[in-house]
């Protein structure tokens, strides 16, 4: 399976968020690497990823609360995170048969959801946080080049 790449289109200009997104991509790639070779390792890596995701979502939700973002955006973003966790747990349950198909489905969901979520939901969160906090948003930073 192809590896998920962090690119500048994922850049939010929120240093801790960017660092954690890169770490999440690295964990997904590790999960993809160990997929069928070592089920025990896969289980360990998945547990690590699940913990990391929980901390990451908590960070974003805290940043949104601190920046006092629009209540609707906050609620929708939180719901997206909760939906992801529920689906992830469901796909992990499906993987209890240790089949390649279930592992592929899990990895595909992880990769697609995360990329899509970062490019849309997280990016609009970042823009709103930058606007409300008076910090410089990424599109302004890159306009200097
Ligand atoms: Fe995120
Ligand atoms: Fe998010």
Q: Which helices and strands, and how do they pair?
A:
Layout (H helix, E strand, L loop, with lengths): L14 H20 L4 H29 L3 H24 L5 H34 L4 H5 L3
Helix pairs in contact: 1-2, 1-4, 2-3, 2-4, 3-4
The chain binds fe (ii) ion (2 copies).
Largest sheet geometry: none
Give the helix/strand class. Answer: mainly alpha
Unreliably modeled segments: none
Assign a percent range to the helix content.
Answer: over 70%
Ligands: fe (ii) ion
Give the domain tally: 1
Q: How much strand? A: under 5%
CATH architecture: Up-down Bundle
CATH level-3 fold name: Four Helix Bundle (Hemerythrin (Met), subunit A)
Number of distinct beta strands: 0
Instruction: Indicate the mean pLDDT.
Output: 91
Number of helices: 5
**CATH level-4 homologous superfamily:** Hemerythrin-like
| First-to-last CA distance | 35 Å
H-E order: HHHHH
Overall outline:
elongated
Question: What is the CATH top level name?
Answer: Mainly Alpha
Radius of gyration over C-alpha positions, nearest whole angstrom: 16 Å
Q: What would you say about this model in short?
A:
The protein is mainly alpha-helical and 145 residues long.
Main features:
mainly alpha, single chain, 145 residues
Polypeptide structure, described:
- There is one protein chain.
- With 145 residues, the chain is mainly α.
- It has one domain (11-135): Up-down Bundle (Four Helix Bundle (Hemerythrin (Met), subunit A)).
- 77% of the residues lie in helices and 0% in strands.
- The chain contains 5 helices and no strands.
- Helix 1 packs antiparallel against helix 2 (39-67) and helix 3 (71-94) packs antiparallel against helix 4.
- The chain is elongated, with a radius of gyration of 16 Å.
- The model has no long low-confidence stretch (mean pLDDT 91).
- Residues 60, 77, 81, 117, 121-122 line the site of one fe (ii) ion (FE2).
- Residues 60, 77, 81, 117, 121-122 line the site of one fe (ii) ion.
